[in-house]
Amino acid sequence: MICLLATTVKSVLDQALTVGGPAALVSAADLAAARARRGAHGERTLAGRVALRLLLAHVQGDELADAAHLPVDRTCERCGADHGRPRSPRVSLSSSTSQRHVLVAVGPEKMRIGVDAQVLPASIWPGFDTAVLHPREHRLHDNGDIRARIALWTRKEAVLKAAGVGLQVDPSRLCLERRPVLERSPVPDRSQQSWWTVSGESPPQLQGLHVCDLPGAVPRALAASAPSTVRRIDLDAVLPLS
Question: What is the pLDDT of residue 181?
Answer without folding.
Answer: 52
